[in-house]
Amino acid sequence: MIRQKLYENIYFSGITDPKFKSNRISVNLMMPLREDTVSSQAILPFLMRKGSKKLPDFTLLNQRLAELYGASLDADVKKSGSCQILNLSIQSLDDRFSIGGEAVASECAKLLCDLTLEPHFENGQFPQKDLELEKQFLIDTIEAEINEKRIYALNRCTSILCEGQPFGIGKYGTVEGAQALTAQMCTDAYRQVIKTARIEILFIGSGDSGAVMEVFRSAFADVQREDRPFEVQKPDTSVKNLKQVTEPMEVTQGKLVLGFKGQEMDSQEKQNAAQVMCALYGGTPFSRLFLNVREKLSLCYYCAARYDKVNSLMLVDSGVEIENEQKAREAILEQFEVMKRGDFTEEELQNTFLSLINALRTVEDSLGGLENWYLTQIMLGTSCSPAEQIERVSKVTRQDVIDAANHMLLDTVYFLTAKEEA
Amino acid sequence: MEKKIIKSARIGDEYLEIKHPTGLTILLCPMKGYNSAYALFGTNYGSVDCCFKTDKEEAFVTVPEGIAHFLEHKLFESEDGDAFSKYAKTGASANAYTSFDKTCYLFSAAENFEASLEILLNFVTSPYFTEETVQKEQGIIGQEISMYDDDPQWRVYFNLLGALYHNHPVRVDIAGTKASIAKIDAKLLYRCYNTFYNLNNMVLSIAGNFEVDTVLELADKILKPAEPITIDRGEVKEPDSIVKSEVVQNLPVAAPLFYLGFKEKAGDVVYNTKAQVLYELLLEIVAGETSPIYRKLYDEGLINAVFASEVMGGRDYIVNFFAGESRDPHAVKEQLLGYIAQLKRDGIDPAAFGRCKKAAYGRQVRSLNNVESVASLMLLSHFSGIQSYDVLDFIADCTLEQMNELLRSSLDPQKCALSIVEAAEE
What we know:
The structure holds two protein chains of two kinds.
Chain A: E1 2-7, E2 10-16, E3 22-32, H1 38-42, H2 44-48, H3 58-67, E4 72-80, E5 83-93, H4 104-117, H5 128-144, H6 149-161, H7 175-179, H8 183-196, E6 198-205, H9 209-219, E7 243-249, E8 253-262, H10 268-282, H11 288-296, E9 300-308, E10 313-321, H12 325-341, H13 346-363, H14 367-380, H15 386-394, H16 398-406, E11 408-418
Parallel strand pairs in A: 2-6, 7-11
Antiparallel strand pairs in A: 1-2, 3-5, 3-6, 4-5, 8-10, 8-11, 9-10
Helix pairs in contact in A: 4-9, 10-16, 11-12, 12-16, 13-15
Chain B: E1 2-7, E2 14-19, E3 25-30, E4 37-43, E5 51-54, E6 61-62, H1 67-75, E7 77-78, E8 81-82, H2 83-87, E9 93-98, E10 103-109, H3 113-124, H4 131-149, H5 152-164, H6 178-181, H7 186-196, E11 202-208, H8 212-222, E12 231-232, E13 246-250, E14 257-264, H9 269-287, H10 292-299, E15 308-313, E16 318-325, H11 329-346, H12 350-366, H13 371-383, H14 390-397, H15 400-408, E17 416-422
Parallel strand pairs in B: 3-11, 13-17
Antiparallel strand pairs in B: 1-2, 2-3, 4-10, 4-11, 5-6, 5-12, 7-8, 9-10, 14-16, 14-17, 15-16
């Protein structure tokens, strides 16, 4: 990875690999995740995705994308630790495959710069009409969480687990927050973001990253910026009383989510050990949870664990029949005791390494995989490649895994259950 | 052993097509620079194949709905443990899926390719079912079916198919129902297996980081020659007409979900495959993000960014549909039908045609970026009677006249149904 500081708090990272037939460029605007700004910031990528000064009309913009060989332009909001990340990305065919020899990559970069720095304004603000539509879309997106029960239950558990902390805030904000947005608020938020955000630009593909970087360097040359340090807030990992929340909804299958907080995960080594522990516990189809809770007991259709390094959190989620909730919960926790005691075989541990290594090597085979990987590295303040991470993970010992399990404390049990018949 | 190189003159990519002496077709595309290999072992058999016989059998058999998917689950088990625990020793990430007309077993491996392939070839060719293991699976799949029953996206889709098709099994959930899977037993599973998992009805497709010789040596070692087989799937008597023009279900959703589908005239499998590629382009022209109607619906707040159009087809069915979230699905339907009628009258704008064609071409080339889509495309193309790169040629060779003709012969308002999932009124 080539990483260059373009200006204060603005970085360009390029990963070039000739095997790809396309290029992916993304602009990531990183802001603190705060309740009072979450909504006005969340709507920005979608407003920016609508047009620029040069292409002030949504249809004109889409026609331009079609001409760039069906380039896909995506707007998204992510969250990582105490940060909200506003993401605009474009992906298209590499210049080598264009029929008329067009410089597709540079044109895509220019388009992305225009959308980011020269949005389409009417009377100095985002157009009212765009605002109304995107507000509604934001509200729909928040409410659509309800449709995806598994994701909904995970999000609910995360909010309870991280109550009062930035990571407990939903990345899209709330329906009320979205409803209250005005064109003035969004325009002010936009100016604040362009002035103060930490900006990470990523290029991944087979094209010339140098040429693309120069497009960004010149586009950002005249942007007025405020120098302020980019601060990341450490997550609060204290665990007091076990929080137990049950919520009824119209479902036939219940969703049980257990939230754990990692304690003193203050080094790369401990983080890696926690990752291996979580994979052994519930991250593979031969994990403790999959084999025991799903296969042997037939209690759940899915039962899996995932670990979030940036926040030192582990979530276990499962889909269970309502009447089996207690049994499933006991079985999940019983397997966790196995982890803490180290009652797993050497073979299980070695197989878990193989599976993690396979996943890490596969990261380099897709543009999206590489983008996620390097963005997470940036959030962790490291720049480790997947190959380097394989080396590190391989050093984790059995004792490290047992220690990691003993440093993981259960904080929240969330259950999404059926509504009682009236 | 017949070996053929399939090459794309347009982009220079190529792959190998091999007819193995056992009857299996092997498609291999080694890709430079990739760490992983993606292997698919698939049979031309899916949820719609509920009634069949072979050339050696007298009578047709009708099997319970959901049996192809059930069989997929069961194959992972053998006498000496399940396939996942074997893959655990190689680090490969493995899975399987059943669609309307295909069942595929797959793995992705960045290391230990040979050992992983050995597992794949072995377990798919070694069925092992007992009444006891069948019963246990009924519990697990029952849970999976409950999950789909709660899934509004899944419901709105199958409700549409139920409104379009009278008899065709495409109208039934791939996993079946709790009642239908209760009728499955070991004997029925063997009957399906012995018919459809004949190597002459199967394909092994691999792309990415691997050696061709490794694959051929393993195939020689593990696979046993299969008797040539002809499978008669009977004929589904499906009228051209639809069942009903609207279906509504209540489930807790924020904004109503809708699917507006058109039942199209299907031909043979090659015709349907080419038609799907061209329909995809047509739908993009009609209601893609660059079209005037998309703009109008969006500006009026009738659709949002999740609006999409898609074509779905197989051996003897093709459906075109528009789907999304809307506060007023009826208004979306009315406007789309009005616009389609106008377009049929006035013809397609040549500039729009050129733009959409360029975009479709770019996206198709880009899909050859990753091992997964290359292996999948080789397999799907083979079962559809074409070769992978034909798809690029269909797009590149398509003319405006062809598109106008296709438009005028499809998207018939008489053969269109609207499926809605919305929250119950409190």
